[in-house]
Design goal:
109 residues, mainly alpha, 2 domains, 2 helices, 2 strands, 43% helix, rod-shaped
Length: 109
């Protein structure tokens, strides 16, 4: 091998390593954004394709964060007043929605 071939090979390898480092860094950034907004980081599987990475990063950055219920740890929409899973009230913390009324049939004598 000539010296020019070795230099070209080294430059090509450095470029590939830098591109892969930036690509993986953007995937990690997307997962971090998703976790910070209480969203599923599994959306970043679309990042296998570079166009999917770009679209997923834009969508994750534009979505509003979800609320996490302190009682059951489920996520719900940010404008929710009650947790749809356990009935926890986000308006008055520490209270629950009243249970639905139960029908009691009249007793026969």
């Amino acid at each position: 091998m000539r010296d020019d071939d070795v230099i070209g090979l080294v430059i090509a390898l450095v470029v590939i390593v830098v591109v892969m480092a930036v690509y993986i860094g953007l995937i990690v950034l997307g997962v971090t954004i998703a976790k910070r907004k209480n969203r599923s980081p599994h959306w970043m599987w679309f990042a296998v394709h570079p166009l999917g990475l770009l679209i997923t990063l834009i969508v994750m950055a534009s979505l509003s964060p979800l609320k996490r219920c302190p009682q059951c740890a489920q996520t719900t929409q940010p404008q929710a007043r009650l947790c749809p899973f356990c009935g926890y009230s986000f308006i008055i913390p520490g209270t629950f929605a009243p249970p639905p009324p139960v029908y009691i049939p009249p007793q026969r004598y």
